[in-house]
Structure formats: structure tokens, C-alpha cells
Amino acid sequence: MTVAGVHTIGLIGAGRIGSQLARLAVRSGYEVVIANSRGPETLADLVAELGEHARAATPEEAAAAGDVVVVTIPLKNIGTVPVEPLAGKIVIDTNNYYPRRDGSIPELDDESTTTAELLQAHLPTSRVVKAFNHIGAPDLTTDSTAPGTPHRRALIVAGDDPVARATVGGIIDEFGFDVVDLGPLAEGWRIQRDTPGYVKRDDANQLREHLAQARRYRDM
User: Fold this and answer.
1) Residue 133: which residues within 8 A CB-CB, separation 6 or more?
2) Which residues are within 8 A (CB) of 61 and not within 5 positions of it... i.e. 6 or more apart?
């Protein structure tokens, strides 16, 4: 059973998070088109594992093919994400800011914006939704459970478009997690690196409590 209107999920990035989301997508009945920065041929083993409902492609092809597209690459590289093929589409941002990896980004250092808002600025005609940034990659496949499971692990969605948030929330539920709607992209700071809920095995009520306890880096 897949979310209405979403048949194919494109993934730009095939690292730890991207490959795990591809596994969940295939398990949930979606077609998957996955890309990385090194070329489709380097994804042969992953695609063989995923089976007939997955194929490797270039980032432009994955962007064009996906009804929903996940961007899961280092933050310093988001300027390489193709803009035109993603026009009008829901784009999931999984990113966190790691200065050692990404270099210093002044507008994140002074907390005047968030990682997902940076991607939204790069993709002005797309509908960016923050998701999957506060769970360790291995947990994506081991912690997923059926709806109604007691203390089912919960994940957030944040985005400026409520329909896009709801669509991504439906995908998250299918992938095996409850959903906490955080509201607009600007609220995404509440679940960034070093906040109380970051990479915690929270159910929905625990996650809401941790989101409420979050403080800006400058106030920590």
C-alpha cells in the first residue's frame, strides 16, 4: 500500500541514510530510482540487493523520475542538487549541519536559518519537507514497526506546505514510524544535532516533550 499519487521515490544520495530509505521504500511497495555522485555503475550491488523495483541513475534522472525525491547528501554539496527536474515536487531533506564535514556556514552558525530552509532556497519552486534527520541509519530498518505498536518510534515532519507534510507523513507511517508534525521548516532546529530528541528512540509523546525542551545553540 503506497501513499496516493506517489509511485516512485527518487533518492539523490546513496550513503547510509539513502540506502536504508531505499530498502524501506522497496519494502513498502514503491519503485526506487537512486543516484550518487560517482555514477550509476557504482550502485550495482545495492540495486541488485533491492531487486527489480529499483534502478540506478544520475541525480538528474532520479530527480525527474521521483514523485517524491529525497536529498540525502552532505550539506556542503546541496548546491549540486538539480533544480529544474524538482520544480513543483515534494523534496525530503534529511540533512544535519556538521561543521567539520561541511565547513562553516555563517547563516547556520548564527541560527538565522536551518538546513532545510537552505535547501528550500536552492529549490524555490519545490516543496521541501524535513524528515529522517534524527534517527541513526541502522535504526531505520530495525526500529520500524506496524501502526498501533505500543511505544512505536516517532519521527518528525516539518515543511511550509501542509499537503507536502501530510504526504511525507504518510510515507513515514508506511515505513514503520509514527509521525509528529513540527509545522514550518523554520521549526526544524528543534530536532537538529545536540537537541534533546536527536537520535533518541522516542515514541510520539516522548518526542513532543523533547521538542518542547529544545533550546537554540546560543542558549545551551
Assistant:
1) 93, 94, 95, 96, 115, 188, 191, 192
2) 33, 35
Asked whether residue 217 carries a pLDDT value surpassing 90, the answer given is no
Taking the C-alpha atoms of residue 85 and residue 123, their distance in angstroms, rounded to an integer, is: 10
Superfamily, domain 8-219: NAD(P)-binding Rossmann-like Domain (3.40.50.720)
For residue 2, is pLDDT > 80?
no
Name the burial class of residue 216, with classes exposed (0-12), middle (13-18) and buried (19+) by CB atoms within 10 angstroms of its CB.
Answer: exposed
CB 167, CB 50: distance < 8 Å: no
The C-alpha cell at 143 is 526500529
- Is the Cα dihedral 215, 13, 44, 87 positive or negative? positive
Instruction: For residue 54, give the 3-state DSSP assignment.
Output: strand
pLDDT of residue 1 exceeding 70? no
Q: What is the residue extent of each domain of the chain?
A: 8-219
Q: Which amino acid is at 170?
A: G
pLDDT value at residue 220: 81
Q: How far apart are CA 50 and CA 30, in angstroms?
A: 11
Round to whole Å and give the CA distance between 134 and 156.
Answer: 8
Q: What is the DSSP letter of 76?
A: G
**What's the predicted TM-score (pTM) here?**
0.96
